Structure formats: C-alpha cells, structure tokens
Amino acid sequence: MKRFFLLLLFFASRFIAAGSSDDPAVFSTAKPWAYWWWPGSAVTEKGITHNLENFKKAGFGGLHIIPIYGAKGSESLFQNYLSPGWQAKFFFTLKEAKRLGLGIDMTMGTGWPLGGPSITEKEAAKKYQFKAGVFSTDLTGQKVKRAAPGGEGLVMDHFDMKAFAKYSHTFAPLLKKAHSPLRAIYNDSYEVYGGNYTPELFPAFQRLNGYDLRKHFDVLSKKKAESEEENQIFADYHRTISTLLQRNFVLPFDHWINSMGFTSRNQAHGSPGNLLDIYAAADIPEAEFFGSKPFDIPGYRVDPEYDSTTFGIPDIRALKLASSAANLTGKKLVSAETATWLGNHFKVSIAQVKPVLDQVFVGGVNHVFFHGATYSPPEIAWPGWLFYASTNFNPQSHFWEAMPALNKYIENVQTMLQANPTDSDALLYFPMEDVWHENNGSGKLHTLELHANSRVWLKNTSFGKWSELLQNKGFSVDYISDDLLTDLVLTPTKTFKTKSGGNYKVLLIPAAHYVSVETLELLAKWVKQGYPVYFLEHLPLHLNTNGATKEAKERWENARHALLMRVLSDPADQLARLGVSTESMSTKGLSFLRKKTPAGAAYFVTNLQSKFSEGSISLKKIAGNYEVWDPLTDTKSYGKKGSEAWLSLAPGQSVIIKSIAKIPSASLIAAAKITMEVAPHNLQVSVGSRVFDLSDFAYYTHLDTSIADSPSARYRFNLNLTADQIANAKVLHLTDLRDMAKVRINGKEIGMIWSLPFQLAIPSGTLQEQNQIEIEVISNSANRIRKMDQQGVVWKNFYEINFVDIRYKPFDASKWAIEDGGMKGKIYFTNR
C-alpha cells in the first residue's frame, strides 16, 4: 500500500509539472551550465545583463543561482534573501535569461545544506549522545554554511517531514510567480554534520525492525561494536535513518518541486542512505567530480598542493551511481558538479579541464555544471568577486578566451549523449547493508561521501573490486540497489528489463556479507525461474537484521540454499556464454561509454592514458559502416568494419564512433603517419615592450622576473619548408605549452591551441616555402596574483570564510615560486 501511494503521488506530481511547463525549448541542456554564485545577492540589473551576455557569448546553456556571503564594501547593495528587492533581481534575471536563450536553476536556499531563518529549534537538525552513560538529545547547532544575507539560520532536520513542509512553504510564493526559463530547484550534497536523531526515530525503528531500540542504549553508547548482534543493531538503526531520509525528505523534495511545476535536481552523495535510491528519486540526479586526478597523459599537470589523503581522488564509480540510477529509471539527464578544486586558485590550466570532462562523460554524465562562475560586477577590478572553492569559469578567468571552444566541444558530445540511451549489458548489485554493518560505534552515522571517505564504502570493498575489474575488462555495467531490483521486469528471453527500456543479460552480486530476506528470496525466485543471477566469490553470509523472527531466519536459509550453484570465482566465461559484450579497447587503456542509436550504436571513446596512440580496436555493437567524429575539431573519417576498426587517438584526445548506413567518402584508410620536426630561425619573444632573442623556445616567465606577471607573450620566428614538407604539414604540434596559444601563420589567424595534445590543424594553402609564424601564448594568472599579494593589493575582502587556498588555509600567493609561462621544447608537423 505504501509503495502504491508513493507511485500515485509520483505520477500525479509529474502530471502537474508537465501541465505547468512554459517553454522548455528556450534553452539548451547540451551546452554546459555553471554554478553562478551571488555574493551577498548584491546583484544589479546592469551587472546581471553584463554577466549573462558574457556567458551567452562563451557558449553556456544556463546558470544555477546560489546566493552566498558577500564582499566587503558592497553592503549597500546586499539584498536579503527572498525579500522584495531580491525577488525583483531574480525576476529580472529570468527576463534577461529568456531574452538570451539561457536556462536558470536555483538552490532551494542559500549556501548549503538546507536551512535558514524559517527553521526553529523544533525543525532543526538533532543528535543523540551519551553523557555519563545517560542517553540525551540535543541540537547539532549547525548553521547554513556560506549563507547569504537573510539566509542565515539553523540547518533543517532532514529526517522530519514536517520540517521540510515548513521549509518548503517559505518558497511557495516565489515559485508560484516564477516562470520559464527557471527550470530546476536544487539540493546540494548532504553535509549535515552530526545529525543522527529525530523525534520519530524510536517509533519508526519499532515499526521497521520489530523491537525497541531504547532497550539497547548499552549498544548505542559503545565506542565500537563488539559482536555480530551489536553490529546488527547498529545496522538496523542506520537502515531506519535511511528510510526516514528517503520518506521524509528525498521523496517529498522531488514531489513538492514537481507540484510547483519545476524539475528537481539533487546531489545524493554524503547522505546516510543508499545513494542509488536517492539519485533515482530526482528528475536530474547530480554527481560530483571534486579535486585532481593524476591522468597518465603526457603534459597533464596535477597541483602538488592538492591533498588527496584528505580529499581523495575522483572515481568514475561515484559518477556511475548517479548515471546508473538514471539509466534504470529512465531519467534523460545526469548532471555533475564538475572541476571543483581542480587546482589552486589562478593556477588551473584549461588543458586540465578537458580530461576531467571526458572522465565525467565516460561515467555516464550528460549535463555538465561547471563549479563555477561567480557573479562579478563589471566595475570591480580584476580578479573581481570569486568563490573560495571553485575553478573559475567566469569572464575574469585567464582561460576565458578559450571557453567558446571548450563549450562547443561539450555541446557536441552532450548532444549525442543526451539523444541516446546508455547500452549496458550487466547489472552489479550495490550491497548497502555491508556498509551499515561496518565500523559501528557511538554516534556513528554512515554518510557516503565522495572524498577520502569513499575509500571505506566504495573503493576498498568487494563492490569496489568487482566494479573496477569489470570496468577495466571492458564490460558496460550499471549498479542496482535492493529497491531498484523490485522494479525489474523479467522477459521471456531470460533477461532483465527496466521500465525505461534497458535490457540486461545478467545480474551479478559481489561478495556481499549481509542481505535481507526479501532480496534473497527475490534472487532465489529468479534463479528457480532460470534467470541469470550469479554471486561473485561467495553467497551472502548473514541475514541483515537483529529483529528477524524465527520464520524469517528459516526463509533466509532456504533461499540461500537455493542459490548454492550460482557462485562464480571468475565471471568472464559465464558472461561470454550469456552474450555480455566486452570491449577490448579497455585493455589498451581507452575509456568508453556505449549508447544505443537507431542505426545501431555510438561510442564516446577517450584516451586518458599513455598506452595507446593508434591501432585497431574492436567495436562489439557496430556491425557495418562507421563514422569517427572528433567533437573538438569537428572533423570526420569513415570506415567499414571487418573484425576490427582502425583508430588514431593520442593521449588526451576523444572521439565519437557511430554506426552509419552509408559512407559518404570513398577514402576509408588513412595514410601512414609522418612526423616532421622543423628548425625555426630568427626566434624572438616579445613581452610588452621587451623583446628577447632566443636560440630555442623558453618560458618567458624565467627570462626576467620583472616580466613574470605578464599574462601573455608573443613568440615570432621564420620557418623554411620544402615542397614535400608543405604537402605533409597538416597538423602543427607544440611539445610544451603553458597554458594556451593563438597561432598566426603568414598574417592569417589559424586558431587556438588549448587542450592536450597541443596541436592545431593547418588549413590547406596556408604554408609556403618561407613562413612567418607568430604564437601568442596566454599563461595562467598565478604570477599576476603573486605580485598583487607581494604589493599588498587588497582583493581578498569577503565575509565568512573570505578566501582560502586548496588546503583551506588563508590564501597568500606572495611566497609562491614563479609559475612557468610560455612555451619550450620543440615544434613539429604531422600529415594527420
């Protein structure tokens, strides 16, 4: 009955939302969006128009409004959150965004997590504790982080439906007046610290588990669980908390937003619940790519100051939790907070951004949100207003000039990704019960965070082991929870189908220790009916709850006995017999995401390692003609598949390979690759009014420290080529560039080099026997901010956290070493 009620509410809310939609076609979701922080909500109509017009020109599809703390000196412009003045600026933003064809999302509050002045102690986050062995409850005392003026206050109790009802009531008047292009209402990652209690806890626990938690305070007070029974009690507690979160916040959040006529967007990570179920409840599940990942790409840089011990290394499996939930429930969009803390302020190169995007795409994301783009008034001098935790994607960024090219690349890729469903063959069960049974102790709450904490619940687990192994062997796999298992539809051909149209050939259960009787009986039923369910390493070892009756225990043992013949130590042979496709390109270091298309299949393929440059690859879902499209350069080549396809893909590059009916070109085989190193002469570099003669390319920032803060330099040289060299010089390559470059040959603008590998196609007829080449190199702004801090220029003038570095220490660039800027090494040409 409960499930029927939730489904009824779900479809009713979808009907309301669909009926009140204005014009969803006014903006693009294929183009990237960005978090748009409003410091102090001190926005003006002039500033809003200036910001939005710049974002539009750079190729953004939309912005996500998040009011935060303000900048000192602008207090007279502060607008209290949701005040008449704030609402006037908000509706002006909607008007301008619609004029420009931009979409707008908004956080349901200011800063994060949800809370503010409407939350009293009754609705605020709560905790249990033991003082001198006596159980007591109290407020956590946590207030909204990074709150904007008028948004300050206590954090909401996310386990209390009445608390959310009161909180949401605050937004009803605004949303009733809101209109397109406002699209989605957003909830940030769950960062409620210490909240482990709600007044409904004990009665809910009794209903769900069949016994009274209050009789086990001796267990809850222990610093560490010491027995199987104690771990079971703690797991029952965690499961109850998860149920309360889902029932009293996650589902009401989605349903209420839909009832107001808008889309819900939710970050599940950090929650004390099964992330798959929380992602699945939102219209747009949102993952996160936080921090630096040391991609094995020649020339790729990782900020040595990034603390991977504390913040972890971004993992594709965390992204796939969100995309799997979307695939299983038919959600068209999967978003991701992207490039958060990619490197220290003023040091991030745009060449670091593209591999991050490619990793995000492989993880199943098709709706990128840059983190982020701070609103900055046009009259504020560089570096303008900035947010402390982001990579800067606003017009003050040193790589802003390359943003149109980056954004066009994203649009090209996301157009394909959004148009076609993901083609996964296998399902891998996520054993949430094992997480709840591990490392328990007093006050402990298992929050599934994406930073270093993910080692505990994701990476260093059986699920982590098998998900990585299957991924590395080229299997396309989606992850599934206990609740999502019950939505699967069995087909006569012994496959598992989803209501959204996905068709899976096998269900794999990693070495789970704890499984509920309901899940185990369901799996046993499927096995009895002949469906492909297999357990990796061993069968589940224990029933998951301390409250199980004798009958439940017997049922569990009977179900387990029925599964004895379904254990695999290595699933490869069985997967092959079931026709589960494996793409051998993964063993060559290539990463991919496979999509179903009307013509057959499409692959997004990216090279994020240095193992492959060119060679033959297998494409299991393409049977005939195919097209290879470079979404960065918009160039295409074609092939006719035999057993394998030929691919040229240098580290850092990516392509889309798709089935096509007919090849438009007779040329199927690329010429052999020819590399020609050339020797420039009369080499000079000019920085402002200074000109330096060089014998070889060298970083201009180290020629003279007095010019190190210059944002750019022009390298000029002459180049003599033979007729054969001209005929084969199709692509210009630079070996070492900091950080991007504009190329001019014989007075003609050729284009910009900004991504790895550093190369640029040369239009036919450009090169001559004698050539004048000019390469304007634009560097990052680290040296510029270094000089400003050395001179004591006041620019870090924000309230609250003000401005911190990548290790969350007060930002001070005055003692930084000079950053490399310019180009060094060699230049060469290739024929393709």
TrEMBL record:
<dbReference type="InterPro" id="IPR008979">
    <property type="entry name" value="Galactose-bd-like_sf"/>
</dbReference>
<keyword id="KW-0732">Signal</keyword>
<protein>
    <submittedName>
        <fullName>Glycosyl hydrolase</fullName>
    </submittedName>
</protein>
<keyword id="KW-0378">Hydrolase</keyword>
<dbReference type="InterPro" id="IPR053161">
    <property type="entry name" value="Ulvan_degrading_GH"/>
</dbReference>
<dbReference type="Pfam" id="PF17132">
    <property type="entry name" value="Glyco_hydro_106"/>
</dbReference>
<dbReference type="GO" id="GO:0016787">
    <property type="term" value="F:hydrolase activity"/>
</dbReference>
<feature type="signal peptide">
    <location>
        <begin position="1"/>
        <end position="17"/>
    </location>
</feature>
